[in-house]
Write a structure and sequence with these properties.
Order of helices and strands: EEEHEEHEHHHEHEHEEHEHEEHEH
Shape: elongated
Keywords: Antibiotic resistance, ATP-binding, Cell membrane, Membrane, Nucleotide-binding, Translocase, Transport
Family: Belongs to the ABC transporter superfamily. Drug exporter-1 (DrugE1) (TC 3.A.1.105) family.
GO molecular function: ATP binding; ATP hydrolysis activity
CATH architecture of the largest domain: 3-Layer(aba) Sandwich
Protein name: Multidrug ABC transporter ATP-binding protein
Radius of gyration: 23 Å
Pfam families: ABC_tran, DrrA1-3_C
Oligomer: single chain
Length: about 325
């Protein structure tokens, strides 16, 4: 493994019965970056994290975390990582301080070090005023911040965050984003799984897109957007029955196939165009010539949602089967 890589996986496979939740995943996560693992529910993100954090044993492939083989030396891997799952793993009957002390003792850290580290983390995560309060009375955002603080108590080399903002209100979600950005700025290697496109776009320096257990794209957010080509033309017409004529009129102006947005009522059309082509007035004239009434025409830069739609044919928040059959 390269010394510049915090996580390296090649050909990871995990099956549950006849379902391959992870089907040949390759990853190379550099040190000191926030690395995004993006995909819909059931894509294989959580199973991949569980393989890398030794909670599951792979059926095939290899994985190294901080240079250590996850199958050959799982105990040593666990001593080097932090993990925050989809649900806050805090003990409600204990205070914030007692939760941190419990994790420190499980890591066999000296009591003096645990006390100093707990104070540092509670201050950093704005939980110092709640240090001696029982966690049962914490809000969802406070529990999630405490959960991440607990995963950092032993100063892990790699921190795995599995959909850390799921279930949070918008204010708590924004606060969590700022916290993850601080961790990245401090040089912590973070592997972040998410189904939220705006979250990956803001936080991750590089993004792996995964679907049906396979890696289908890899790059920076800008690289992924550029790969689908040009700007995006978005047209809303007055009546869905005119979509065929509208597609025929718009197609000569576009570099990609004009499609009907699957999430619309048949009146919203999308396509790729060349940047700087002054396509809006031409599109309006073409639709008018085709006797199609237009409600809206917009040209914009591609988003990660466009990327995912192009790659998979569905949006990233599409509901999928769970990764591990119950």
């Amino acid at each position: 493994m390269s010394s510049d890589l915090a996580v390296q996986a090649h050909g990871l496979v995990k099956a549950f019965g006849t379902t391959r939740a992870v089907d040949g995943v390759d990853l190379e996560v550099p040190r000191g970056v926030v690395y995004g693992l993006l995909g819909p529910n059931g894509a294989g993100k959580t199973t991949t994290v569980r393989l890398l954090t030794t909670l599951l044993r792979p059926d095939g492939g290899t994985a190294l975390v901080d240079g250590i083989d996850v199958v050959a030396q799982p105990g040593l891997v666990r001593s080097r990582i932090g993990l925050t799952g989809q649900y806050a793993a805090v003990e409600e009957r204990l205070t914030a301080n007692e939760n941190l002390d419990l994790i420190g003792r499980l890591y066999h850290l000296p009591r003096k070090e645990v006390r100093a580290r707990s104070k540092e983390l509670l201050d950093r995560f704005d939980l110092d005023q709640a240090a001696d309060r029982v966690v049962k009375g914490f809000s969802g955002g406070m529990r999630r911040r405490l959960d991440i603080a607990m995963s950092l108590i032993a100063r892990p080399s790699v921190l795995f965050l599995d959909e850390p903002t799921t279930g949070l209100d918008p204010r708590s979600r924004l606060a969590m984003w700022e916290l993850i950005e601080e961790l990245g700025d401090d040089g912590t290697t973070v592997l972040l799984t998410t189904q939220y496109l705006d979250e990956a776009d803001r936080l991750a320096e590089r993004i792996v897109v995964i679907d049906t257990g396979k890696v289908i794209a890899n790059g920076t957010a800008d690289e992924l957007k550029n790969d689908i080509g040009g700007d995006r033309l978005s047209v809303t017409i007055a009546r869905a029955e005119n979509s065929g004529r509208a597609i025929e009129a718009l197609q000569p102006l576009c570099t990609g196939t004009v499609v009907v947005d699957a999430d619309s009522d048949g009146r919203h059309l999308l396509a790729s165009i060349r940047s700087g082509d002054r396509v809006v007035p031409r599109a309006i004239r073409a639709l008018d010539d085709a006797d199609v009434d237009v409600l809206d025409v917009e040209v914009r830069r591609p988003t990660l949602d466009d990327v995912f739609l192009q790659l998979t044919g569905k949006r990233a928040d599409a509901d999928e089967q769970t990764e591990e059959p119950s």
